[in-house]
Design a protein that fits this description.
- By secondary structure, the protein is of the alpha/beta class.
- It is 32% helix and 23% strand.
- It is globular and about 45 Å long.
- Strands 3-2-1-4-7-6-8-5 form an eight-stranded mixed beta sheet, sandwiched between helices.
Length: 215
């Protein structure tokens, strides 16, 4: 039975307990939940009730990419997922996606998702783009990132071929990794929405928007 490692980078996020609830309630049970506390000064007490169900790593603040890389280093699973501490997995996320990947012999996949607001209310239609062929995928990815990082499941062997996240990139670390992956591996898409992606003022993509404009 394949093991799935799910890495949760955590930094001062009030929604961390909702993220962890969604992981401990997954229908697929051979999971390793790795919370990487990236130097948080707030909300760490919300992790305490889950300590017997997770692997908890504390480090100095270094950004999301560094937290993900620490999680990857400690992961013992056959597959790697990532869940931001403000987002939520559907209960069958890991079960459905793993079965899909095994059926397709896939090493990398991503899923459709919904946006939610601060209160957890769905605010969008199902989102997710999957171009019909490799050439179209590369064209779309050259314009911008169309893969939601928290919807991804990656066979751990992929990292041996393309490396891990570049820690100097505070906002585009996932986009950079996907660009490296699509050069060597097929990208598979699960059209079923399996993630709730929270849009709020403190989310990383909004905080780092100025960095994106400058670079």
């Amino acid at each position: 039975m394949s093991k799935i490692s799910i890495i949760v980078p955590f930094y001062n996020c009030p929604y961390i307990n909702q993220a962890l609830d969604s992981l401990v309630n997954q229908t697929y049970k051979n999971l390793e939940i790795i919370v990487v506390n990236d130097g948080s000064t707030q909300y760490s007490e919300k992790v305490t009730p889950y300590l017997d169900k997770i692997k908890y790593i504390q480090k100095e603040n270094g950004g999301t990419a560094s937290a993900l890389n620490v999680g990857i280093q400690h992961a013992t699973g056959d597959y790697i997922c990532w869940l931001s501490s403000d987002d939520i997995y559907y209960p069958k996320k890991t079960e459905v996606q793993l079965a899909f990947m095994k059926a397709k012999n896939a090493l990398f996949s991503h899923t459709s998702y919904y946006c939610i607001n601060e209160k957890g209310v769905i605010t969008s239609r199902a989102l997710g783009i999957h171009p019909p062929n490799r050439l179209e995928l590369i064209k779309r990815m050259s314009i911008g990132n169309i893969i939601n990082g928290c919807s991804v499941m990656i066979n751990k062997t992929v990292f041996h071929h393309i490396g891990v996240f570049k820690e100097k990139l505070p906002y585009t670390h996932d986009y950079d990794l996907w660009l490296r992956i699509i050069q060597k591996f097929d990208v598979h898409y699960v059209p079923q929405p399996l993630l709730l992606y929270r849009v709020h003022e403190q989310m990383g993509s909004k905080k780092h928007a100025d960095y994106k404009k400058r670079n």
